Structure formats: structure tokens, C-alpha cells
């Protein structure tokens, strides 16, 4: 998803941004937040359930034939819709975003962003398959920075990931987050790194 050179750029951007703030920035990129394996089966079942109505109305076929066609339709559509390049087209966008948001919150906790001394951790999260990005800020930041402030950062990151430029997107997001954090959370007398400067790829 992201090259070693881009990972190095991201690390350098985090280091530069954190020189100007007591906040902590951490980045995560995922290939996909969920596999959604049950969604194709649900669509296949709906299609299979709709078949008898048309066949009963337009044909004189016996119930055994119609039932067999139902089974064939269910199996065929299940296989077809389960193909990776098709599956995400049949998963509702709301479900994709909900799953990606849940994963962003899980990563926020898993990476220890809620354990910084002044609760000034920021997670920059992107999930490629869902075309989803989110900025998750800890309580100390949310007291001073409205969530709306991050929307431009999120939009730019989504566009960059969609166009195959995740490195550019993360670097731009880090720079903008760093600017916001520097205004509200300038570096203290001891500006120590509480979290590793890295981009985690999952």
C-alpha cells in the first residue's frame, strides 16, 4: 500500500511537526477494515427469494424445478458477488464507514494514544478499500479543537489514497495537524516523544 520511501517521508513529517507541539501524532493505514463475507450471501438470498414470483407467474414449471433454480441462483450469485473486486460494490457505504470508524477507534486504543500525559494524541487513520479516513483526537485536544477543523485534512487524505498517493496524503495531513496542534499545544520545557514516530501498515 505504501512504499518504504513514503514511510520515511511520513516519519520525517511527524518528527518535524512534533518539534512545534506537545501533541503526539500517529498514523495507521489499512488495506480494509472488514471482509464483509456475509453481505454477498445476503444479496444472493434476496435474489433467490425473488425468483419464484416471476417463474410462477410466467411459467408452468413444477415447484421442484423452481426450487432447483433458486438453489442454483443462490450459489451462483454468492460466488460472483464474493469476488474481491465486486464485493465492495455491494456492501452498503454506511456499513463500510461504520466498520472503518470502529477500526479507527480500536487502533487509537491499541496504539496507546489515550495514554499520553496531557491526552494530546492524534491518530491519522485511513482504510483503502473503504475509501475512508478519520482523525481521532484525544480528550485534551477535543476540549480546544472542534472536530470540524479536521474535515479538510480528512478530505485531502481520502483523495490522495484514492488516487494511489497515500504518502502524499499522510504527509499533508501530518503537516496540517501539526499546524493546528502547534497553535493550541505549543511544546513544553521538556518536549519528549511519548509515542513512536511511525506509520503502521495493516
Overview of the molecule:
This protein has 202 residues and is of the alpha/beta class. It is built from eight helices and four strands. The protein folds into two domains: 141 residues, Diaminopimelate Epimerase, Chain A, domain 1, CATH 3.10.310.50; 53 residues, no CATH class. 57% of the residues lie in helices and 11% in strands. Helix 1 packs parallel to helix 8, helix 2 runs antiparallel to helix 3 and helix 7 packs antiparallel against helix 8. The longest helix has 21 residues. It is elongated and about 80 Å long. The mean pLDDT is 90.
Structure keywords:
8 helices; 4 strands; 202 residues; Diaminopimelate Epimerase, Chain A, domain 1; alpha/beta
Strand and helix map with partners:
Layout: H1 4-18, E1 24-30, H2 38-58, H3 63-81, H4 84-90, H5 93-110, E2 121-127, E3 132-137, H6 139-142, H7 151-162, H8 166-184, E4 199-201
Parallel strand pairs: 1-2, 1-4
Antiparallel strand pairs: 2-3
